[in-house]
Design goal:
Blueprint: H1 2-35, H2 40-63, H3 69-95, H4 98-128, H5 133-159, H6 164-168, H7 176-182, H8 184-219, H9 223-282, H10 287-311, H11 318-349, H12 355-386
Length: 399
């Protein structure tokens, strides 16, 4: 965060997402093409090993002092982080029925929410011990190989179950983008994630701008070093508490919210929090107040909303779970970031919006988000009803 914000401000952080979206336009069809030629297990292996090879290439680039390798890594990381997570949840959706998924996804997601602070803590300790970036990347590549081995273990377990021939055959030839455009349900999921990411990314711009302003005020005559120190300390503390609150919500509340409030209740909690946050910004609320609401928004997004987003895929077909999910969870998610970058550019360059103005714009997008959620909930009920006649549970039903 200090590097990005000090190099080009909060605007550069917003604009960089556009590069990721451009690459994803090519990546998504390529993923669908590969998926149509490989079994599910081989697809998992090929994609993971591809990213391992990318990490090795970045290690060589850093060692060879290749120009702009840092920015290239930032763009790649944005693609990597959404693609592998999407593939993981595609596999989980493939293994479990709707009923099982609604019961188990909140528990499975505890692993993701726990991995974030544990990984950050380990990385921090290693850097403090003087471990270089190249070695850190080697460790990351090793963890990906371990990730792949866990998939292999699960795959061997599944081979002993019924329907393994169906599980081991390639997907039908499909284009993720085309599947999204043909399905009203998938199109609404895509629209929801686009708007959600517009709101979240614009919110990050508001937070980043506020942090820089406060850093300059607090630094006084301390210069750039004092500003960098303030920004790093703020984000370190901020993300620490985001991760802690996320774990608490995921472990203690998500399953109960889904059980007692259902999909409807779980789907609307985050936009209500966001609407409150950005309405307060529009009304001129101070940095301290917005910081608390932004922490609540991020924590709810990473826990409850993340689980709900995966549950939306339970009533879809196998091809949709892989090809269409890759399109939505990668390109459409980054498209929301790109639109937010356009909003930031227009607001700062042409319209001269203050942070209160950006808060008002974000509040309007939240209203659109709530409208899409209502339509999506109706389509989800239809999709669930259509898939409710399945009588044979997928492998893993004893879980």
């Amino acid at each position: 965060e200090p590097l990005i914000l000090l190099e080009g401000g909060a605007e550069l952080k917003s604009y960089a997402a556009a590069f990721q979206a451009v690459f994803l336009i090519a990546y998504v069809p390529l993923y669908g093409w590969v998926a149509s030629r490989l079994s599910r297990q081989r697809l998992l292996a090929v994609v993971i090993l591809f990213f391992v090879a990318c990490i090795v290439a970045f290690i060589l680039g850093i060692m060879g002092e290749v120009p702009h390798v840092g920015f290239a890594f930032f763009v790649w990381l944005g693609i990597f982080s959404v693609s592998l997570i999407a593939q993981f949840w595609s596999y989980a959706n493939d293994l479990y029925t709707e009923e099982q998924g609604k019961r188990l996804f909140a528990i499975i997601a505890v692993g993701a929410t726990s991995g974030a602070p544990i990984g950050a803590a380990i990385a921090g300790r290693l850097y403090e011990a003087g471990i270089s970036s190249e070695v850190m990347l080697m460790i990351a590549a090793g963890l990906l190989v371990l990730h792949l081995l866990l998939f292999v273990i699960i795959g061997r377990r599944e081979q002993a179950r019924e329907k393994r021939e169906r599980k081991s055959t390639p997907l039908k030839k499909s284009n993720g983008f085309a599947m999204v455009l043909r399905s009203r349900y998938l199109l609404l999921i895509a629209a929801l994630l686009v708007v959600l990411n517009i709101v979240n990314t614009t919110g990050e711009y508001i937070l980043g701008s506020s942090v820089v302003e406060n850093a300059k005020e607090q630094a006084g005559s301390g210069g750039e070093a004092a500003v960098e120190e303030y920004i790093g300390a703020f984000y370190g503390t901020f993300f620490f508490w985001v991760n802690i609150v996320t774990i608490v919500i995921q472990a203690l509340l998500v399953s109960r919210i889904v059980k007692f409030l259902g999909m409807a209740g779980a789907l609307f909690i985050l936009p209500v929090i966001s609407l409150g946050a950005y309405s307060l910004v529009a009304l001129g609320a101070g940095f301290a107040v917005f910081r608390v609401f932004k922490l609540a928004e991020n924590s709810t997004d990473y826990s409850l909303m993340n689980t709900v987003k995966q549950m939306l895929w339970l009533p879809t077909s196998v091809e949709e779970k892989y090809a269409a999910k890759q399109a939505i969870d990668t390109f459409f998610v980054r498209a929301g970031d790109v639109i937010s970058a356009g909003l930031v550019y227009a607001g700062t360059t042409w319209l001269g919006l203050s942070l209160a103005g950006f808060g008002m714009a974000n509040a309007l997008f939240v209203v659109l988000w709530i409208g899409i959620a209502f339509l999506l909930l109706r389509e989800n009920r239809k999709a669930t009803a259509k898939s409710g006649d399945r009588t044979v549970a997928p492998a893993g039903s004893e879980a």
